[in-house]
Design goal:
11 helices
Length: about 400
């Protein structure tokens, strides 16, 4: 990838594609990586830019990163392009194909078999990795060494023909999972933030790693931990629960022990209700806040609308109190990335909290800082697992 002629890079977006895409754009802006030709063709976002594949370690919502090899291809041109790439590879050829945008397992199977036959006829030794599905998971790509010793080709069917790319990196799924399930302090009761989502929230805040970041509802310390991994140097976590503070301290210490290179991060976790932030932190001393606050009682089954409305009112008050304090300690221009829950009910519209507090937040000077305005018209991004009773609205505000 030369500076004069940047490659077209594809990002395979995670389960919440818009959120993943917004994270990538925030990351590029924070790192001051210039990009061009922004294109969202789900499940991919692509840009022309000089990008190292290793940035996948710093993105919570990207599954694969690939480099484009061709566009507007006919089926024949697609196979020729793959064949020419494979022919120039030395030694035994190992390859796989993932087809997106059309659910045609038989295409992938046929293409692979044809290519294998042609290459074998030329005297090459070939292994084709096919799992009976149109796409290969990042686990399969990794376990079959398709990046280090072989090739995975990504094919996207569009109305203008096929687009083709070659995978350069896949999400380090084992690292994410060991951080999620291996950490010593776990508290399922108060709701644990998945490390991938924590990373996305931090990236969305677009705070320079040299600047101070705060999580005022730090729970088990996931946001602080992920921020340390992302290279943030100055971090504060606060929470009003003794157990949360102890868990956070254990988890962050555990993480830093595992990765000696992160020993230079300056982090502190303290017991403090959010209503008292202004007593502890100096005015304008914080550059950014990324937090998942208390989201209400864990919900086991469908509850009455009245009970949910009552809780929504209580949470609205807590969040407003929090923003009153944020206003005191945040620098002008500083950003707040904040999760606001919404409750799904059996019939009818969900119960939302954001609409109850938005006018007051705006009066305080917090403007909605819309994420990915090129493709997204909503003021927030939704993170929701199927059948979850509580969905997360992800909001970003900027203090005037
Ligand atoms: C959903 S958890 C945060 C999850 C956290 N991000 C994690 O990864 O574990 C919410 C946290 O808010 C804390 N909390 C609730 N009310 C609070 C308040 N008034 N001030 C500070 N923390 C509060 C709870 O103790 C809990 O640890």
């Amino acid at each position: 990838m030369s500076a004069a002629n940047p490659a077209v890079v594809w990002f395979l977006l995670g389960r919440e594609p818009t959120l993943s895409a917004a994270e990538i754009i925030s990351f590029l802006r924070r790192e001051q990586i210039s990009y061009d030709n922004l294109l969202l063709q789900q499940p991919f976002l692509s840009v022309s830019a000089n990008i190292k594949a290793e940035i996948i370690n710093q993105l919570g919502g990207t599954i694969k990163i690939a480099e484009e090899l061709g566009t507007n291809l006919s089926e024949q041109a697609l196979l020729t392009a793959i064949q020419s790439k494979l022919s120039s590879a030395p030694g035994k050829i190992i390859f796989g194909i993932s087809l997106y945008g059309e659910n045609k397992t038989d295409n992938v199977e046929r293409w692979g078999k044809e290519l294998k036959k042609i290459l074998k006829a030329k005297g090459r030794s070939v292994r084709y990795v096919f799992k009976g599905e149109p796409t290969l998971s990042s686990v399969t790509v990794e376990k079959n060494s398709l990046i280090s010793k072989g090739h995975e080709f990504l094919v996207l069917k569009t109305s203008a023909g096929y687009r083709l790319a070659r995978t350069n990196a896949v999400q380090p799924f084992e690292n994410f999972s060991s951080r999620d399930y291996g950490r010593p302090g776990r508290d399922a009761g108060s709701g644990m933030l998945p490390p991938k989502l924590a990373m996305m929230l931090i990236n969305l805040a677009e705070i320079n790693p040299e600047q101070t970041l705060l999580d005022p509802f730090c729970g088990s310390g996931t946001i602080i931990s992920e921020a340390i991994l992302l290279g943030y140097k100055k971090l504060f976590g606060t929470d009003n629960s003794d157990k949360a503070v102890a868990d956070s301290q254990k988890n962050i210490a555990w993480l830093v022990e595992q990765d000696l290179s992160r020993k230079d991060a300056d982090w502190k976790v303290e017991l403090l209700p959010v209503q008292k932030l202004g007593e502890k932190f100096a005015p304008k001393s914080i550059f950014g806040i990324a937090t998942e606050p208390y989201l209400g009682r864990p919900k086991q089954e469908r509850e009455t609308v009245n009970a949910l409305e009552k809780e929504a009112g209580e949470l609205a008050k807590l969040y407003l109190d929090a923003f009153l304090e944020f206003k005191k300690i945040l620098r002008p221009g500083g950003r707040v990335v904040f999760v606001i829950p919404r409750f799904t009910i059996r019939s009818g519209a969900p119960i939302t909290i954001s609409d109850k507090i938005l006018p007051q937040l705006q009066k305080l000077g917090f403007a909605v800082d819309q994420m990915l305005p090129e493709f997204n018209k909503s003021p927030f991004l939704l993170y929701q697992r199927p059948d979850q009773l509580v969905a997360r609205e992800i909001w970003r505000f900027k203090l005037a």
